[in-house]
Amino acid sequence: MKRSFFLWGNEKRGLKGKTEDFLFNYSWEGKPLDQVIDDMALSKLEQYVLDAAIKEFEKNNAKYKRNRPKNGYELDQLITQKLEEFEEDDWNEEDVEFIERSE
Length: 103
What we know:
Layout: E1 3-7, H1 10-13, H2 20-25, H3 33-39, H4 44-63, H5 72-88, E2 96-100
Parallel strand pairs: 1-2
Helix pairs in contact: 4-5
């Protein structure tokens, strides 16, 4: 199964999406994935686990009957957790389709 990802230069990513203040104040609720990727300046590997991190967030909200806000900090923590799990799995970059963004 091929996955699609967006790539952009470092000047586009900057550090905006990685500061603690930004992550605590950023809400990804109701936003399309490509906007979340751009806003949070996710790397291609982080993009690869984004869907799983969002599903984990939703599962935890339902399981523990909570209604936590969809902020960037918690999503970033789940992405990190999924990356750690992912490092244990084998993945092949040949199975991934990377897409250059034109901006």
